[in-house]
Structures are given as structure tokens and as C-alpha cells.
Amino acid sequence: MTENEIKKIYELKEEGKGYYAIATLLSLSPSSVKSFLLRHPKSELEIVHHCKNCGAAISQFSDGRIKRFCSLKCHRDYWNKHRKIADRKSTYQCECEECHKVFTSYGGKRRFCSRTCFQQNESRKWGNKNG
Question: In the list 38, 49, 59, 98, which could disulfide-bond 117, CB 3.0-4.6 Å?
């Protein structure tokens, strides 16, 4: 069921429609509507959270992943402001195997500082053969 169908089911149920009438209007099976409403009463399902960046209310359903931001813009703004939060992946100081330059790797240890160094290493390894 889509989120729109779920909202429509609740609206029709609040109007006093029965399972069969709701199912007919939404082109669903009556047993699907009945079992959905019995398993997910509206009071349990709809939860309101607030955006971590701007504080706007986010209405969402508890059967999915919890949304922490109201939009992609808020998501980016928040992480740009909070780059040094403890639950993020570690950074490592690595030395490039090709040019021996020290660089910072985020989240995992890398062998090369750039794609260019990787390609130079590969071409030397394979004797400058293409493909």
C-alpha cells in the first residue's frame, strides 16, 4: 500500500465507512483493508518528529525508517555545520603508494591519494598495456 492509500483509508474510516466500502473505493481487497486497520490503529501509526536542523514537524509512519530531517537541504546544512560529530566514521592519515604524499582518508584506509596515482601505478604494474 502506498502512503496516499493509507491516508485515504484513515480518512474514509473516520467518515464512518466500512471495510468493504473503503476497499471498493480504493480498488483493494476488503480483507487487506480490514487486516491493515486491525494491525495498525491510527493512534499507533502516525508519529510526529521534528527536524534536527530547523525544528519543523515531520509527520511519518512508524513502519518505516525514522526521518530526522524535513528535506535534503536541511540534511546537508546540518551535516555541514556538524562535521565533527562522534558517531561519524573515523579519519585516517595515509601515505600514497605512488607519490608518497600524506593524505586524509575518511571511513577507510586507502592506498592512493587520487585516481591519477592509481592509474599510474596500474599502468606501471601492467607495463603500459591498454585494456
Answer: 98
